[in-house]
Amino acid sequence: xxxxxxxxxxxxxxxxxxxxxxxxxxxxxxxxxxxxxxxxxxxxxxxxxxxxxxxxxxxxxxxxxxxxxxxxxxxxxxxxxxxxxxxxxxxxxxxxxxxxxxxxxxxxxxxxxxxxxxxxxxxxxxxxxxxxxxxxxxxxxxxxxxxxxxxxxxxxxxxxxxxxxxxxxxxxxxxxxxxxxxxxxxxxxxxxxxxxxxxxxxxxxxxxxxxxxxxxxxxxxxxxxxxxxxxxxxxxxxxxxxxxxxxxxxxxxxxxxxxxxxxxxxxxxxxxxxxxxxxxxxxxxxxxxxxxxxxxxxxxxxxxxxxxxxxxxxxxxxxxxxxxxxxxxxxxxxxxxxxxxxxxxxxxxxxxxxxxxxxxxxxxxxxxxxxxxxxxxxxxxx
Length: 382
Hints:
The protein is an alpha/beta fold. Helix content is 28%, strand content 33%. Strands 1, 2, 8, 9, 10, 11, 17 and 18 form an eight-stranded mixed sheet that branches.
């Protein structure tokens, strides 16, 4: 049968779009097919993000913080936020939440198959798997099939290993999230730790790097053990959960559109919604999928136009990444300078693509001029 919509990939982007469709009275009756080679039944990731007020997935937020902490060798500060909240959602909670809703709809079909190709034929989207082929009016793709070429010349990898640890004695302040701790060796590149306590005895501790290559597995474990012992001063703890991830941070152009394939719309990382300068994805996906819903309801082509403001933020990201890739400045120095000299609300608005032009100027004006000017000129493409 032909579907109205095929969602190729059931990660954050695909399931966010599905959830929004099912919550809309006009779209919830459409024939929808979701294709992914794996079933979403494991707690394989944690999403952290900031937003004002309550979001669409507020009911499954594990914890949230109104105070964030930044640390480097010569600068340490706690920031109390008035508008933003830093929030955490566990992958398994997100999957279960969306899939529970989807089970109520007979018009939603899930298949576990490996996708081999996505094409357009006679203005109809077509998804081919190892065993079958499916068609729809539109295919919303979050697979890696249309990723641009990435290598060490144009890209860094954000890679991380996180441990959820539990202690017997109360040692954490659950009201304070440690956003970045750069008091670590920077021998591999920009390197920092997250510490996000969800109670006085439990926290996510995550070792994160922005580098060209991933490390050996044991190096992540060694770094986490040393940090927990030497910086958190914890000797007795239990590891409840571990996760590992790799996110591209690239100058390569990720496009919402597939050339000559109008019926295919890219989502998530495939569509350029992983922020090149930080790796944050969750909130950008939410904004994009909401825009798609509004266009579908209006009977318009469901691929939101890239605005001039979007292009400005993309330029900022490319400029920062170029500075780090060209080794003009270390990531540690850049982030420490920004957090030392600007209010947290302004920084988060800027990093979340929610700032005004004046706020953009305020953030950028605290950074060294020449490295960013030369990199900005190199990356100037609108």
